[in-house]
User: Which sequence fits this backbone?
């Protein structure tokens, strides 16, 4: 069974609340083709401070966001190693 469907069946109010907040965020920060990135990120950081929910998932805990960040970092380094990308030589 689909993971999203399982979550919906287990916690319908939490899933519906998240979906509603997503729609409201879209309405608040998007006007036609204009995305108000500065407003979006200023409000996220104002609300969550230095917590990883400010840049990660706002419905996951600090620990869950940290695990996701660690896994993404591990996968990115693994990909770079596999493709022979030397990060010491990369500049911005």
Assistant:
């Amino acid at each position: 069974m689909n993971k999203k469907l399982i979550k919906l069946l287990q916690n319908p109010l939490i899933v519906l609340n998240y979906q509603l907040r997503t729609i409201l965020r879209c309405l608040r920060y998007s006007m036609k083709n204009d995305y108000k990135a500065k407003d979006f990120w200023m409000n996220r950081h104002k609300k969550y401070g230095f917590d990883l929910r400010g840049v990660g998932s706002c419905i996951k805990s600090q620990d869950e966001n940290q695990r996701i960040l660690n896994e993404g970092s591990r996968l990115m380094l693994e990909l770079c190693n596999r493709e022979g990308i030397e990060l010491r030589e990369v500049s911005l």
